[in-house]
UniProtKB/TrEMBL annotation:
Enzyme class: transferase
Biased composition (Acidic residues): 406-417
Pfam families tied to this protein: CTP_transf_like
Region annotation (Disordered) ranges: 353-417
Protein name: choline-phosphate cytidylyltransferase
Protein keywords: Coiled coil, Lipid biosynthesis, Lipid metabolism, Nucleotidyltransferase, Phospholipid biosynthesis, Phospholipid metabolism, Transferase
Organism: Frankliniella fusca
Biased composition range(s): Low complexity: 388-405
Domain Cytidyltransferase-like positions: 128-255
Length: 417
């Protein structure tokens, strides 16, 4: 009904647009009386063709939309109902699922030949089961194959509970409630069976009115039997699906274990405590230190990225500064530098202070003669020297008055010393 209403609105909008164009051209030709009637008829014809073409396109789009939505609509009586894409799948004990199951006439059995030929008198109830831990594209692809095994399929998915999964397969990452919710939001699923049994028996098949079971053809071995689906294969109620190679829950868990440090550091940075992550005190400190180092690296990278075009200018300025520094260093400490010159001058002055110049030589031509030197610089007067005889002290005293005058070396008596 909604699709038909949308199509009607589209057609009405197309007709309105055509009428507006028609009125526009009529006004144009009314204002221009020179326009001929043939031109008006041509415009009308083109508008009519455009309108019919647009209506055919709208009808085709509505038909394709109905077919697409019909592939997702199934009810117990074969009619199309609410799309499973728009609503999450109900659990098997919900009133909606119970009402659909009660309307199914399970006394009418559907053979595999009828299902493949498309001659089934009612919707075909296909069952697929699994653990569906860490729901991924491999699980979704399996359910897609099960949904498209036949035409008009009502897909029931059984999810194993925690108790039997932990005892038979091992510990799961997600809880059973989380796995139920993950599967029921898959658009190919019509109904969810919680805590599905590990091995299917007649009681379970009759309760849920299951026609066929979909699973990969690899034998599923347990402690009691070599293949839990062997009985269904003998009855012709088993349909094989293909596994998606390269992806599985075990591979995802192995990747988490391999990159354990990365995920722990990420969750510590997000605010999780070491106790919640089951990390020791020393490992916590190590991981937090690594996070700090990564933050510093990231900041350094961002700084270098922000510099961008200025990097070349900075390098050129650094080269210029380095050249100036080298020139200044050589000017001070080089062989002909200022410090060398100051050192040489200081060394010369020190040598002059320690060893003054010698006196001029006598034979020098510039020196004056002996007489001139005598006249210019007479020798200092000599002190009077008195002679005392050893025999008489009187003669010494009498001679003292006679020798009171100063005599030079030339005027001294011949007998004087």
């Amino acid at each position: 009904m909604v699709a038909n209403a949308v199509a009607s609105l589209r057609a009405l909008a197309t007709m309105k647009s055509c009428q507006i164009l028609y009125i526009f051209f009529n006004i144009k030709f009314f204002l221009n009386p020179v326009a001929s009637g043939e031109a008006t008829q041509t415009v009308r014809k083109n508008l009519s063709i455009m309108s019919r073409k647009r209506m055919r396109e709208d009808e085709a789009s509505v038909t394709s939309t109905d077919c697409q939505s019909a592939s997702n609509h199934t009810l117990s009586n074969g009619d199309f109902g609410i799309s499973s894409v728009r609503t999450m799948a109900p659990f098997s004990d919900d009133p909606e699922a119970i009402a659909i199951r009660e309307k199914v006439d399970y006394s009418v059995r559907i053979t595999l030949k009828q299902a493949r030929a498309g001659n089934a008198p009612r919707p075909i109830r296909v069952f697929a089961d699994g653990i569906y831990d860490l729901f991924h594209q491999g699980h979704a692809r399996q359910l897609l194959q099960a949904k498209n095994l036949f035409s008009n399929v009502y897909l029931i998915v059984g999810v194993n509970g925690d108790a039997q999964t932990h005892s038979k397969k091992g510990r799961t990452v997600m809880t059973e409630d989380e796995r139920y919710e993950a599967v029921r939001h898959c658009r190919y699923v019509d109904e969810i069976v919680k805590d599905s049994p590990w091995e299917l028996d007649d009681e379970f098949l009759n309760k849920h009115k299951i026609d066929f079971v979909a699973h990969d053809d690899i034998p599923y071995v347990t402690e009691d039997c070599t293949d839990v689906y062997s009985l269904l294969k003998e009855r012709g109620m088993f349909v094989a699906t293909e596994r998606t190679e390269g992806v599985s829950t075990s591979d995802i868990v192995a990747r988490i274990v391999r990159d354990y440090d990365v995920y722990v550091r990420r969750n510590l940075a997000r605010g999780y405590s070491a106790k919640e992550l089951n990390v020791s005190f020393l490992n916590e400190k190590k991981f937090r230190l690594q996070n700090k180092m990564d933050e510093l690296k990231d900041k350094g990278k961002r700084v270098m990225e922000n510099i961008g075009e200025k990097r070349i200018d900075m390098i050129q300025k650094w080269e210029e500064k380095s050249r100036d520094f080298i020139d200044t260093f050589l000017l001070l400490f080089g062989r002909e530098g200022r410090l060398s010159h100051i050192w040489n001058e200081g060394k010369g002055r020190l040598m002059q202070a320690l060893s003054p110049p010698s006196s001029p030589a006598r034979g020098d031509d510039n020196s004056t003669s002996g007489d001139e030197a005598w006249q210019c610089c007479p020798p200092p007067p000599k002190a009077c020297r008195l002679e005392y005889s050893a025999g008489s002290s009187r003669s010494r005293s009498s001679g003292a008055s006679a020798a009171s005058d100063d005599y030079s070396d030339d005027e001294a008596p011949s007998g004087g010393t």
